[in-house]
Design a protein that fits this description.
The complex is a heterodimer of chains A (about 575) and B (about 80). With about 575 residues, chain A is an alpha/beta fold. Chain A contains 26 helices and 9 strands. Classes of the chains: A alpha/beta (about 575), B alpha+beta (about 80).
Chain lengths: ~575, ~80
């Protein structure tokens, strides 16, 4: 089977083209470094099956970074290279193209001029036929978001050619300059609205106020959509229809053991821990609406291109934590789920940076499912209590990474990154991305949530919880000021962190106890999924060190907080 | 006038005439199109130690303060 490699600079749309060619959906966004792992897929054309590989983006093939080494290794195995180029940025992209044409073992190649639609309103005109003539390989203009021109990639696979274009390495930029001179015309035009917006949001004087407004607005929209869905749609549906029906159906099931497992013993949904009551309510009524609203907003910000600009504005603050601004992107992804966030730390250069960023991902904020649960239970104590919880968590994270920066040798590297232009997101791409993320949540998280709730209930019914509480509950009563039954929450919480907060519901905690318990449950251990990804990315030893550090921070901060609450 | 990119005034256009630092550093800058002889426009200055933002060709690049200080540019009249 022939191997097709999609290769090109970061953020030129390789993943979007890959999705179209193979039918495999992968997450795309408008910033460099969205794809950190290569993805494989298959494509059938004229009875021939091809393997398609989406190679993470590279500016050059100098083997200077991990991503470049990965690309070079992949290229060796390729049969056809599809070099994807950002047509609005010909000069920089042709640098890689010339390197690809100059490989020692030459591979047939096609050039794809993506963002073809954008050349029109950026005042560029490219003569693609002439480029094809000069470089000696097929050149195909496309717009990956709309799918325009993508069929031509497939139908031209057999036309992929080994170019006989040769050049002197030392004269590279001169030659690129000449090529551009003969194929590209640039017209003068006025700045577009998006360009002016880009200026406003990146210059510190206007950018910082803009960032504050955007972040505030983001939280408002996420809460507005999430809460709206819960209060006006899902919760009424559950309480008026589903819950009474399910109780009626199951209440006569004998023996009582089974009915306890299915619907618990209390009609209060958050306290029953029945698989069909709490097990449905937590994932679908409390958590899902927030996952939905968070990823609508994140998806828009990703595709519009705001995140790299936020990274630039935060660069200065992040330097005090031993990081540069680009670390903001993994941390923002971590507000949704820690797993993709930890994976995305691969865009960072040094190991030191990766470690500090990973710790920050784990402790700077809860993931969205846990946030949803804290909001849902905490709102009974008032919005002030909920806000205080999040503020204390951020404070703990800042102090911890400040200390890590002092303890770990080395310096924060400097920011050096491309800032992509703002782009109007495509509705179909956004909805597809949202759908993928919701599907992942339903497939990976929901069964674990239901299983967690089942486990809690059965341990309780079998009296194991009481046994454990009596044996090892004491330190938590003493240091954290929490009821000793909390031990079962602590033991099972690593399964799913949203479930761990749900488990606080039956305890009737005071506001202070709820704050201490929430903060401890957010910080103390990563959930099982993020624990495995941590081992995969960092190795067992380093992963365990990070987990141990985070647990220590959690225990001491929660104890300290309890101490303050008791004294004052 | 020859000054460092860090000290170049905002909205001014200039030509890169010198890049201090090793080969790896030069390559890193070159990968985004920042190399000797190339024209750049400074879009925003370093505020409170933050990065400098410039435009090279059609690429907008954010560069840390220390790195910007290693790049010397010549303002054209």
């Amino acid at each position: 089977m022939k191997k097709i490699l999609l290769i090109g600079n970061p953020n030129v749309g390789k993943s979007a083209i890959f999705s179209h060619l193979t039918g495999i959906d992968i997450i795309t966004a408008n910033y460099p470094g969205t794809t950190v792992e290569f993805t494989k897929g298959y494509l059938k054309f004229e009875n021939e099956k091809y393997e398609v590989i989406d190679v993470p983006g590279n500016y050059t093939l100098d083997a200077a970074s991990k991503a470049e080494e990965v690309a070079i290794d992949l290229i060796k195995e390729g049969d056809i290279l599809v070099n994807v180029i950002d047509s609005t940025n010909l000069e920089r992209n042709l640098n890689l193209t010339l390197q690809l044409l100059h490989l020692t073992e030459k591979i047939p190649m096609i050039i794809v001029l993506n963002f073809w639609d954008e050349t029109k309103h950026t005042g560029i005109s490219i003569d693609e036929k002439k480029l094809e003539e000069i470089l000696g390989v097929p050149v195909i203009p496309t717009c990956a978001v709309t799918g325009e021109g993508l069929c031509q990639i497939v139908s031209n696979l057999n036309n992929a050619k080994i170019s006989n274009f040769s050049y002197d390495q030392n004269e590279k930029w001169h030659i690129i300059g000449n090529i551009i001179e003969s194929v590209q015309k640039v017209f003068h035009r006025h700045h577009t609205f998006l360009e002016r917006l880009s200026d406003i949001t990146i210059k510190p004087l206007t950018g910082i106020p803009a960032a504050i407004i955007i972040i505030a607005l983001t939280f408002f929209i996420i809460r507005f959509i999430g809460e709206g869905l819960i209060n006006y749609l899902l919760d009424p549906l559950f309480n008026n229809f589903y819950h009474p029906a399910i109780i009626n159906l199951t209440k006569n099931i004998k023996p009582e053991f089974f009915s306890k497992l299915l619907i618990g013993t209390t009609p209060e949904v958050m306290k029953s821990f029945g698989v069909l009551t709490t097990g449905i309510y937590v994932p679908f009524i409390v958590v899902l609406p927030y996952i939905f609203s968070f990823y609508i907003v994140l998806g828009f910000m990703e595709d519009f291109g705001y995140l790299p600009r936020l990274a630039v504005l935060l660069d200065n603050i992040f330097h005090h934590l031993g990081l540069h601004g680009y670390s903001a992107i993994p941390i923002i992804l971590g507000l949704g789920c820690k797993v993709p966030a930890i994976l995305s730390t691969r865009i960072l250069e040094s190991k030191r940076e990766k470690i500090i960023t990973t710790v920050l991902i784990l402790i700077s904020a809860p993931c969205m499912p846990q946030t949803a649960m804290i909001l849902s239970l905490g709102i009974a104590y008032g919005i002030k209590v909920v806000t205080l919880i999040f503020l204390i968590i951020i404070l703990i994270a800042v102090i911890t990474s400040f200390m890590l920066n002092k303890i770990m040798k080395g310096e924060a590297p400097e920011l050096f990154t491309e800032i992509p232009p703002y782009r109007i997101p495509s509705f179909s791409v956004l909805s597809k991305k949202l759908w993928m993320r919701l599907k992942d949540f339903s497939k990976d998280a929901v069964p674990l949530i239901i299983f967690g709730i089942f486990l809690i209930n059965i341990l309780d019914i079998l009296n194991i919880t009481n046994f454990l509480t009596a044996k090892i509950g004491k330190p938590f009563v003493y240091f954290l000021g929490l009821p000793k039954e909390i031990i079962s929450v602590i033991i099972l919480g690593f399964l799913r962190k949203d479930v761990s907060i749900a488990m606080l519901a039956p305890f009737a905690l005071s506001a202070k106890q709820f704050i201490v318990a929430s903060i401890f449950m957010v910080l103390y251990l990563p959930c099982i999924a993020s624990f495995f990804i941590l081992i995969k990315e960092m190795g067992l030893k380093l992963a365990l060190t990070i987990v141990f550090t985070v647990f220590t921070v959690a225990f001491f901060s929660a104890s300290f907080l309890n101490f303050i609450f008791t004294v004052f | 006038m020859i000054i460092s990119l860090l000290n170049l005034e905002k909205n001014k256009t200039a030509k890169v005439v010198k890049i201090e630092g090793g080969a790896a550093f030069q390559k890193k800058l070159e990968s985004l199109g920042l190399r000797l002889g190339v024209k750049i426009k400074k879009l925003s200055s370093s505020v409170f130690g933050g990065p400098v933002v410039i435009r090279v060709g059609r690429t907008h690049i954010a560069i840390g303060k220390g790195m910007a200080n290693k790049i010397t540019v010549e303002i054209e009249n």
